[in-house]
Amino acid sequence: MPRLPLALLLLAACSEYNLGGEKDNPQILDDTAEPECPPQIPDCEDTGETAEPDDTGEEVPRCEDLYFGAQNLDVVEACEVIPQTGTFTPVVEWSISTFSTQPAYDQVMMTPIVASLTDDNGDGDIDDDDIPDVLFTTYTGTNWTGAGYLRAVHGDGSGEIFTASVQLEGSAGLAAGDLDGDGVVEIVGATLAHEIIAFEHDGTEKWRSRAFTQTVLAYAPYPAISDMDGDGSPEVIVGTVVLNSNGTVRSPGNTTSRGSAGTYSSLSFPVDLDGDGVEEIITGNAAFDADGNELWRASVPDGYPAVGDFDGDGEGEVVATANGRVWLLDTDGAILWQQSLPNSSTTAGPPTIADYDGDGEPEVGVAGISLYAVFDTDGALLWWRPSQDGSSGVTGSAVFDFEGDGQAEAVYPDETRVWVFSGTDGAIKLESPDHSSWTVTEYAPIVDVDGDGQAEIVVPNCT
Questions:
Q1: Domain residues for 78?
Q2: In the predicted model, what is the mean pLDDT of residues 26-44?
Q3: In this structure, is residue 133 part of a structural domain?
């Protein structure tokens, strides 16, 4: 297939089987509720009645009997679900390269996000029952640090939803969340003037913050949304800047730590690292509270962070990457291990934490200028494969079990190709040349973007 020179999305359906299950949210159970049986198992219906013993005196097995705490249980055969497996056979579902508004702005060099923006089923609500939509920013020519526009398209490929009229930073990231409690998401981005801006779900401007400096936000910053203090009102976080849900400033941020390995992108995010019920902002070498107070600082440079439980203690450890190196930091910032990327890479992109090899333990995937590498739980190099990213050298990746066999695959777009590697040993499962990017810190998210119960890969492109 010839490369689409201005293509936005390359979506790959994993195969013709359901990897995502039902689209409805799973039922959340408490200690007193009797959960219903999974609706996809006809032999396991929950009639709402208690089964009585039959004439043989044997009790009829009920699916409710499978819901207990941590115990060893015998599985009732009628209630057992065997995951479907298959072969990774990607196909392009749809792509978009032209737009009706601001058509010259057709380049994408950021990570798209997915959210529901329209009432597709006509039930009066915009929620997870509707077909998801894809949001992204576009810029023109090669001016990735210049002006761009927020665009939204239907996740099933049926067309555009809107292009916002306000100019944004062309390769900056986006976040979506319900800021005002109306049940519908708002979209947050960054302007060329280094303001943080929020849009309603239809693309109209909701609010914008005061301007910050580029040294506080970085080029191509990525916002995050979370209720950090649990008061029912979310905060917006960019670097170490914290805004209230109405755009007013709670913490002005700082220039010494923002979740960035140099010039490109602030990728900080909030998480309850120590399990005390209050979230902290995690950067590449420090943690802050919602008011901007520094909680700890590690003796490593700032970088791109990720969090996972590497020692099974129920608390998070921080993986940070910068300058061709990877660190694992404890909950208090102490260095647990550090490694250099192979192949003499002098850069390191945002880390991806996942169980790559199916051993039940977290591993770390990192891309550099000329490779993609995976490190084991203890920091030992598991495997690496050559790639090409001489532009930024700091692109990201995503991990998913496409074949349903319990073995993950890593999806990594570099400058010229989309790679899919076996998580176990790095064997190449896909090498698609139908891709190009100047690269910043973007990656290809894996999500059911059209509501069909299958996972798609959403790949941004620029020429």
A1: 21-83
A2: 41
A3: no
